[in-house]
Amino acid sequence: MVEIAALGIIAAFIIFGGLMMLEVVPTFVALGGMAIAISIAGGLTPQTILTDVIQGGSTRLASAMVAAAFGGTLGVLAEKQGILEDIVKSAAELGGDSPFVMAVALYTAVVIASTSISGLGAFILMGTIIFPILISVGFPKKIAGAITLLAYGNGVMLNPSNWVFYQEVTGISLDSVIVWALPVAGIAFVVGIIYVFMQVRKPALNMTLAQSNQDDFSSSTPKYALAAPLIPVALVIGDVMNVYAAFIVGIVYAAVFSQPGLKGIKNFGDTLRLITQSFHDGIKQVAPAIALMVVIGWLLKAVFADPISSTMEPLLMQIVPENMILYAGMFSLLAPLALYRGPLNIWGLGSGIIGVMAAIGINPQLITTTAISALRVQAPGDPTNTHNAWSAEELEVNVNDITKHILPYIWVIAAAGVGMSVYLFGM
């Protein structure tokens, strides 16, 4: 019976995973169907499925949902109040006449902005400013998109709302996520700069700064307001307050100080209305992610159930290497399986797989940060991401060409992440 149950569970992973990866059904539907199919195959009773998997699973990631809503609010505020635009344009001013310095400055600006913002709208705002600037200094369209996507993938690694999601998937501590994320983000930044340097060295790049309509830049947004995206990150890393309180401080700071002079304080009623409307809009921005969290919660509740975890334990114990060198090598090699909603994508099928691994006793800190490492390939490189698809359409290039171009670099970042996971939690 155990063997039959195991085959049923594996079949559920394969069937619904395939439907999701081939885009036959939406990810939301595929994950929900997978959770229920795994529950049935694993022998859970109908009452358990309704009560524990569906009801309990719907709120399993409630903390991450709230963090996403706050992150979306800050992103909308930064977009409405001109903070994102000013960060990018200020970086462009610092670039001067050097394409390399210009690209590095813009890369850094996107990293900073992405630490606390969420939503396609904010990315589109940054892209519509950055793409013409990079193209104007001689970068081909594909490279302009690649630089922006690499920087975005670098920045979201430091986004506190993402940290809460990673924490909640297997129940590890926030400190475990942060202690892994900071050095890996540093490595990703270095790799990103190396990528820019390698592109600048190409003879095809026009090294003469072209005239751009970005040359004359004036703004009514105070410069000190540009710190808003970094405030939540600094407060959480400094252990000053929790993620939610840190986001609230960042939101209030952005709303008050993005207005000239003391206008944000004098007209505090208008400021409060601005915050309220941004909160509503922010929830709309992150609604797709929150919807995914609901069914990911179902999937986690299913795979953590004793009958299912005990059924899968013998099989997975034979697959996952106990030797940490072999472990690092295997998951580094398999990191691109996070692409196309693949089996290592924690926002899809991967959440169920690492949930099973954590449930059978594999170090949850190790396996969670390993899965996050695979996201270093997915976040900037997955053609199914809305920000990748929009970038390709905006730049009139093939979305898969961008992925192929940056894959060696993001694969290195993912491998470094796996190595860091093993060093911190596997040795």
Tally of separate helices? 20
The SS-based structural class is mainly alpha
Query: What is the element string, with H for helices and E for strands?
Result: HHHHHHHHHHHHHHHHHHHH
**Helix residue percentage:** over 70%
How far apart are the termini? Answer: 36 Å
Approximately how much beta-strand content do the residues carry? Answer: under 5%
Describe the main β-sheet briefly.
none
Number of domains: 1
- Kindly report the average pLDDT value: 88
Shape: globular
Number of E-state strands: 0
Radius of gyration: 22 Å
**Low-pLDDT residue intervals, each spanning 5 or more residues:** 207-214
Question: In short, what is this structure?
Answer:
With 427 residues, the chain is an all-alpha fold. It has one domain (2-426).
Describe the structure.
The protein has one domain. The chain is built from 20 helices and no strands. Helix 17 (349-359) packs antiparallel against helix 18. The longest helix is centred in the last third of the chain and has 37 residues, at 268-304. The chain starts with a helix and ends with a helix. The protein has helices at 2-21, 27-41, 46-58, 62-80, 83-95, 99-114, 120-136, 141-156, 160-170, 174-200, 230-237, 243-257, 263-266, 268-304, 306-319, 324-333, 349-359, 364-381, 386-395, 399-426. It has 427 residues and is mostly helical.
Summary tags:
Citrate transporter; 20 helices; transmembrane; transmembrane helix; 427 residues; single chain; membrane; mainly alpha
Task: Summarize the helices and strands and which ones pair or pack.
Layout: H1 2-21, H2 27-41, H3 46-58, H4 62-80, H5 83-95, H6 99-114, H7 120-136, H8 141-156, H9 160-170, H10 174-200, H11 230-237, H12 243-257, H13 263-266, H14 268-304, H15 306-319, H16 324-333, H17 349-359, H18 364-381, H19 386-395, H20 399-426
Transmembrane segments: 5-22, 28-49, 61-78, 98-131, 143-165, 177-200, 244-265, 286-304, 324-340, 347-367, 406-426
Organism: Halocatena marina
Protein name: Citrate transporter
